[in-house]
Amino acid sequence: MNFPEYYQAYIPWFAEQLRKDVRQDTPASLYGPIHYVLQHSGKQLRPAILAATAETFGHIIREQSLPAALCIEMIHNFTLIHDDIMDADILRHGKATVHTQWDTNRAILAGDGLFAIALDRIKPFLSSPQTYSAILPLILDAVIRVCEGQAMDMEFETRDNVSVDEYIEMVTKKTACLLAVSGRIGALLGNASETEQILVETILLETGVMFQIQDDLLELTAVSADMGKTLGSDLIKRKKTYPYLYARQELEPGLWEKFMDMSRAEQIRETGIGPACKLLEDNFIFEKIREMIKLRHDTIQQMIRELPVRAGEMFHTMLSFIMNRKK
User: Fold this and answer.
1) Rounded CA gap, 42 and 93, in Å?
2) Which of 12, 76, 99, 301 is 20–30 Å from 85 (CA)?
3) What is the pLDDT of residues 225-242, one digit of tens each?
Protein backbone atom coordinates (compact mmCIF):
# COMPACT_ATOMS: atom_id res chain seq x y z
CA MET A 1 0.00 0.00 0.00
CA ASN A 2 1.49 3.32 -1.10
CA PHE A 3 0.72 6.22 1.23
CA PRO A 4 1.46 9.11 -1.20
CA GLU A 5 -0.98 7.63 -3.71
CA TYR A 6 -3.55 6.99 -0.99
CA TYR A 7 -3.15 10.55 0.30
CA GLN A 8 -3.54 12.08 -3.17
CA ALA A 9 -6.80 10.20 -3.73
CA TYR A 10 -8.14 10.64 -0.19
CA ILE A 11 -7.67 14.35 0.42
CA PRO A 12 -10.06 15.78 -2.23
CA TRP A 13 -12.77 13.45 -0.97
CA PHE A 14 -12.11 14.15 2.71
CA ALA A 15 -11.85 17.92 2.19
CA GLU A 16 -15.32 17.88 0.65
CA GLN A 17 -16.72 15.89 3.58
CA LEU A 18 -15.12 18.34 6.01
CA ARG A 19 -16.44 21.43 4.21
CA LYS A 20 -20.04 20.23 4.20
CA ASP A 21 -20.05 18.52 7.60
CA VAL A 22 -21.17 21.45 9.77
CA ARG A 23 -24.55 22.52 8.42
CA GLN A 24 -25.54 25.12 11.00
CA ASP A 25 -24.97 28.77 10.09
CA THR A 26 -26.59 30.69 12.93
CA PRO A 27 -25.52 32.39 15.07
CA ALA A 28 -23.12 33.66 12.42
CA SER A 29 -20.63 34.88 15.02
CA LEU A 30 -20.02 31.24 15.96
CA TYR A 31 -20.52 29.30 12.75
CA GLY A 32 -19.04 31.86 10.36
CA PRO A 33 -15.51 31.38 11.76
CA ILE A 34 -16.00 27.60 12.00
CA HIS A 35 -16.99 27.32 8.33
CA TYR A 36 -14.05 29.57 7.44
CA VAL A 37 -11.62 27.25 9.21
CA LEU A 38 -13.03 24.06 7.72
CA GLN A 39 -12.98 25.53 4.22
CA HIS A 40 -9.33 26.53 4.56
CA SER A 41 -8.02 23.54 6.46
CA GLY A 42 -4.40 22.62 5.79
CA LYS A 43 -2.71 19.43 4.62
CA GLN A 44 -5.14 17.13 6.46
CA LEU A 45 -2.33 14.67 7.08
CA ARG A 46 -3.77 13.30 10.32
CA PRO A 47 -7.11 12.09 8.94
CA ALA A 48 -5.30 10.55 5.96
CA ILE A 49 -2.98 8.66 8.30
CA LEU A 50 -5.97 7.48 10.34
CA ALA A 51 -7.89 6.29 7.29
CA ALA A 52 -4.88 4.66 5.61
CA THR A 53 -3.95 2.82 8.80
CA ALA A 54 -7.51 1.55 9.27
CA GLU A 55 -7.56 0.29 5.70
CA THR A 56 -4.15 -1.34 5.78
CA PHE A 57 -4.88 -3.26 8.98
CA GLY A 58 -8.54 -4.12 8.51
CA HIS A 59 -9.62 -3.17 4.97
CA ILE A 60 -11.82 -0.51 6.60
CA ILE A 61 -13.14 1.73 3.80
CA ARG A 62 -12.81 5.48 4.17
CA GLU A 63 -16.51 6.00 4.89
CA GLN A 64 -16.25 3.77 7.94
CA SER A 65 -13.32 5.69 9.43
CA LEU A 66 -14.72 9.12 8.46
CA PRO A 67 -16.26 9.97 11.89
CA ALA A 68 -12.89 9.55 13.60
CA ALA A 69 -11.06 11.33 10.77
CA LEU A 70 -13.39 14.34 11.01
CA CYS A 71 -12.94 14.41 14.78
CA ILE A 72 -9.14 14.40 14.56
CA GLU A 73 -8.99 17.12 11.88
CA MET A 74 -11.45 19.35 13.77
CA ILE A 75 -9.45 18.96 16.98
CA HIS A 76 -6.26 19.84 15.11
CA ASN A 77 -7.90 23.00 13.77
CA PHE A 78 -9.32 23.91 17.16
CA THR A 79 -5.81 23.86 18.62
CA LEU A 80 -4.52 26.00 15.74
CA ILE A 81 -7.20 28.66 16.27
CA HIS A 82 -6.13 29.06 19.88
CA ASP A 83 -2.39 28.78 19.09
CA ASP A 84 -2.72 31.61 16.57
CA ILE A 85 -4.24 33.82 19.25
CA MET A 86 -1.47 33.03 21.72
CA ASP A 87 1.25 33.52 19.11
CA ALA A 88 -0.39 36.64 17.63
CA ASP A 89 -0.10 35.13 14.14
CA ILE A 90 -1.97 36.92 11.38
CA LEU A 91 -1.80 34.24 8.67
CA ARG A 92 -2.56 30.52 8.58
CA HIS A 93 -2.25 28.56 5.31
CA GLY A 94 -1.93 31.90 3.50
CA LYS A 95 -5.26 33.17 4.88
CA ALA A 96 -6.03 35.56 7.70
CA THR A 97 -6.22 33.79 11.07
CA VAL A 98 -9.63 33.66 12.73
CA HIS A 99 -8.84 36.27 15.37
CA THR A 100 -7.56 38.57 12.60
CA GLN A 101 -10.54 37.99 10.31
CA TRP A 102 -13.00 38.45 13.20
CA ASP A 103 -11.69 39.18 16.70
CA THR A 104 -10.18 37.35 19.67
CA ASN A 105 -13.47 36.67 21.44
CA ARG A 106 -15.07 35.10 18.37
CA ALA A 107 -11.93 33.07 17.71
CA ILE A 108 -11.95 31.64 21.23
CA LEU A 109 -15.63 30.81 20.90
CA ALA A 110 -15.12 29.19 17.49
CA GLY A 111 -12.29 27.07 18.88
CA ASP A 112 -14.41 25.95 21.81
CA GLY A 113 -17.33 25.17 19.52
CA LEU A 114 -15.15 23.23 17.08
CA PHE A 115 -13.76 21.10 19.91
CA ALA A 116 -17.28 20.17 21.03
CA ILE A 117 -18.37 19.43 17.45
CA ALA A 118 -15.28 17.27 17.01
CA LEU A 119 -16.17 15.07 19.98
CA ASP A 120 -19.75 14.86 18.73
CA ARG A 121 -18.54 13.42 15.42
CA ILE A 122 -17.53 10.08 16.95
CA LYS A 123 -21.11 9.38 18.12
CA PRO A 124 -21.66 6.85 15.28
CA PHE A 125 -19.26 4.57 17.13
CA LEU A 126 -21.74 4.38 20.02
CA SER A 127 -23.28 1.47 18.14
CA SER A 128 -20.12 -0.37 19.19
CA PRO A 129 -19.62 0.68 22.83
CA GLN A 130 -16.28 -1.11 23.03
CA THR A 131 -14.93 0.91 20.09
CA TYR A 132 -16.33 4.20 21.38
CA SER A 133 -14.99 3.65 24.89
CA ALA A 134 -11.55 2.91 23.45
CA ILE A 135 -11.40 5.90 21.09
CA LEU A 136 -12.67 8.67 23.38
CA PRO A 137 -9.95 8.36 26.07
CA LEU A 138 -7.27 8.33 23.37
CA ILE A 139 -8.61 11.58 21.94
CA LEU A 140 -8.99 13.32 25.29
CA ASP A 141 -5.53 12.25 26.43
CA ALA A 142 -4.04 13.56 23.16
CA VAL A 143 -5.71 16.95 23.62
CA ILE A 144 -4.33 17.20 27.16
CA ARG A 145 -0.84 16.38 25.86
CA VAL A 146 -1.12 18.99 23.09
CA CYS A 147 -2.13 21.60 25.67
CA GLU A 148 0.81 20.58 27.88
CA GLY A 149 3.15 20.93 24.92
CA GLN A 150 1.82 24.37 24.06
CA ALA A 151 2.20 25.44 27.69
CA MET A 152 5.82 24.24 27.69
CA ASP A 153 6.50 26.09 24.43
CA MET A 154 5.13 29.29 25.94
CA GLU A 155 7.20 28.83 29.10
CA PHE A 156 10.33 28.37 26.98
CA GLU A 157 9.94 31.92 25.67
CA THR A 158 10.87 33.37 29.06
CA ARG A 159 13.38 30.73 30.19
CA ASP A 160 17.09 30.70 29.44
CA ASN A 161 17.80 27.23 30.82
CA VAL A 162 15.70 25.07 28.48
CA SER A 163 17.39 21.71 27.85
CA VAL A 164 17.43 19.61 24.69
CA ASP A 165 15.49 16.89 26.55
CA GLU A 166 12.79 19.37 27.53
CA TYR A 167 12.53 20.45 23.91
CA ILE A 168 12.03 16.82 22.82
CA GLU A 169 9.29 16.41 25.43
CA MET A 170 7.57 19.59 24.24
CA VAL A 171 7.66 18.57 20.57
CA THR A 172 6.47 15.06 21.41
CA LYS A 173 3.39 16.52 23.06
CA LYS A 174 2.67 19.56 20.91
CA THR A 175 3.52 18.25 17.42
CA ALA A 176 3.77 14.47 17.44
CA CYS A 177 1.02 13.40 19.83
CA LEU A 178 -2.00 14.09 17.62
CA LEU A 179 -0.22 12.54 14.65
CA ALA A 180 0.44 9.42 16.70
CA VAL A 181 -3.07 9.08 18.09
CA SER A 182 -4.44 9.36 14.54
CA GLY A 183 -2.49 6.26 13.58
CA ARG A 184 -3.42 4.44 16.77
CA ILE A 185 -7.14 5.07 16.25
CA GLY A 186 -6.81 3.89 12.67
CA ALA A 187 -5.10 0.71 13.85
CA LEU A 188 -7.81 0.23 16.48
CA LEU A 189 -10.56 0.58 13.86
CA GLY A 190 -8.68 -1.92 11.70
CA ASN A 191 -8.77 -4.44 14.56
CA ALA A 192 -5.01 -4.41 15.05
CA SER A 193 -3.79 -6.02 18.24
CA GLU A 194 -2.99 -3.77 21.18
CA THR A 195 0.72 -4.47 20.61
CA GLU A 196 0.38 -3.32 16.98
CA GLN A 197 -1.60 -0.25 18.02
CA ILE A 198 1.12 0.80 20.46
CA LEU A 199 3.81 0.14 17.86
CA VAL A 200 1.99 2.33 15.32
CA GLU A 201 1.64 5.08 17.92
CA THR A 202 5.34 4.88 18.82
CA ILE A 203 6.42 4.98 15.17
CA LEU A 204 4.39 8.13 14.56
CA LEU A 205 5.51 9.78 17.80
CA GLU A 206 9.13 9.28 16.79
CA THR A 207 8.40 10.40 13.23
CA GLY A 208 6.71 13.58 14.44
CA VAL A 209 9.66 14.47 16.65
CA MET A 210 12.16 13.71 13.89
CA PHE A 211 10.18 15.80 11.40
CA GLN A 212 10.16 18.80 13.75
CA ILE A 213 13.91 18.55 14.35
CA GLN A 214 14.49 18.35 10.60
CA ASP A 215 12.17 21.32 10.08
CA ASP A 216 14.15 23.33 12.64
CA LEU A 217 17.37 22.41 10.84
CA LEU A 218 15.98 23.35 7.42
CA GLU A 219 15.05 26.74 8.85
CA LEU A 220 18.80 27.43 8.95
CA THR A 221 20.09 25.39 6.03
CA ALA A 222 17.44 25.24 3.29
CA VAL A 223 16.68 27.57 0.41
CA SER A 224 13.98 30.04 1.43
CA ALA A 225 11.76 29.27 -1.56
CA ASP A 226 11.81 25.55 -0.73
CA MET A 227 10.58 26.15 2.79
CA GLY A 228 7.91 28.67 1.82
CA LYS A 229 9.02 31.16 4.46
CA THR A 230 11.77 33.61 5.30
CA LEU A 231 14.70 31.73 6.76
CA GLY A 232 16.20 32.99 9.98
CA SER A 233 12.98 34.22 11.57
CA ASP A 234 13.29 31.72 14.42
CA LEU A 235 16.90 32.78 14.96
CA ILE A 236 16.00 36.45 15.17
CA LYS A 237 13.28 35.66 17.72
CA ARG A 238 15.76 33.56 19.78
CA LYS A 239 13.23 30.74 19.53
CA LYS A 240 14.33 27.62 21.39
CA THR A 241 14.58 25.34 18.36
CA TYR A 242 16.58 22.12 18.39
CA PRO A 243 19.68 23.62 16.61
CA TYR A 244 19.65 26.60 18.97
CA LEU A 245 19.52 24.46 22.09
CA TYR A 246 21.95 21.87 20.77
CA ALA A 247 24.45 24.55 19.80
CA ARG A 248 24.25 26.09 23.25
CA GLN A 249 24.84 22.68 24.78
CA GLU A 250 27.80 21.78 22.52
CA LEU A 251 29.64 25.04 21.81
CA GLU A 252 32.33 26.43 24.08
CA PRO A 253 31.18 29.61 25.88
CA GLY A 254 33.26 31.89 23.66
CA LEU A 255 31.87 30.41 20.46
CA TRP A 256 28.36 30.55 21.84
CA GLU A 257 28.72 34.25 22.59
CA LYS A 258 30.07 34.80 19.07
CA PHE A 259 27.09 32.94 17.62
CA MET A 260 24.68 35.01 19.68
CA ASP A 261 26.31 38.19 18.39
CA MET A 262 26.11 36.97 14.78
CA SER A 263 22.43 36.13 15.16
CA ARG A 264 21.31 39.49 16.50
CA ALA A 265 18.38 40.88 14.50
CA GLU A 266 20.33 43.90 13.24
CA GLN A 267 23.27 41.68 12.27
CA ILE A 268 21.04 39.28 10.32
CA ARG A 269 19.37 42.20 8.55
CA GLU A 270 22.81 43.40 7.50
CA THR A 271 24.58 40.13 6.58
CA GLY A 272 21.84 37.48 6.53
CA ILE A 273 22.07 34.22 8.46
CA GLY A 274 25.11 33.01 6.52
CA PRO A 275 27.85 33.95 9.04
CA ALA A 276 25.95 32.52 12.02
CA CYS A 277 25.19 29.31 10.14
CA LYS A 278 28.79 28.99 8.99
CA LEU A 279 29.94 29.08 12.60
CA LEU A 280 27.58 26.19 13.40
CA GLU A 281 28.65 24.29 10.29
CA ASP A 282 32.35 24.78 11.04
CA ASN A 283 31.83 23.42 14.52
CA PHE A 284 29.97 20.34 13.27
CA ILE A 285 26.63 21.29 14.87
CA PHE A 286 24.65 20.67 11.70
CA GLU A 287 26.56 17.47 10.95
CA LYS A 288 25.84 16.06 14.40
CA ILE A 289 22.14 16.94 14.11
CA ARG A 290 21.96 15.22 10.72
CA GLU A 291 23.61 12.15 12.23
CA MET A 292 21.08 12.15 15.06
CA ILE A 293 18.20 12.42 12.56
CA LYS A 294 19.63 9.47 10.63
CA LEU A 295 19.86 7.38 13.81
CA ARG A 296 16.24 8.19 14.66
CA HIS A 297 15.25 7.35 11.09
CA ASP A 298 17.01 3.98 11.29
CA THR A 299 15.28 3.22 14.60
CA ILE A 300 11.88 3.99 13.10
CA GLN A 301 12.63 1.79 10.10
CA GLN A 302 13.47 -1.05 12.47
CA MET A 303 10.12 -0.61 14.24
CA ILE A 304 8.29 -0.57 10.90
CA ARG A 305 9.82 -3.95 10.08
CA GLU A 306 8.00 -5.36 13.12
CA LEU A 307 4.60 -4.53 11.57
CA PRO A 308 2.65 -6.96 9.38
CA VAL A 309 3.89 -6.87 5.79
CA ARG A 310 1.00 -4.86 4.34
CA ALA A 311 1.14 -2.29 7.14
CA GLY A 312 4.92 -2.17 6.96
CA GLU A 313 4.84 -1.27 3.28
CA MET A 314 2.37 1.51 3.92
CA PHE A 315 4.29 2.92 6.89
CA HIS A 316 7.56 2.83 4.99
CA THR A 317 6.08 5.06 2.28
CA MET A 318 4.34 7.20 4.92
CA LEU A 319 7.65 7.86 6.67
CA SER A 320 9.27 8.95 3.39
CA PHE A 321 6.26 11.13 2.57
CA ILE A 322 6.33 12.97 5.90
CA MET A 323 10.09 13.46 5.98
CA ASN A 324 10.27 14.74 2.39
CA ARG A 325 7.72 17.49 2.99
CA LYS A 326 9.31 20.92 2.73
CA LYS A 327 6.40 23.28 3.39
Assistant:
1) 6
2) 12
3) 344 445 667 788 888 999
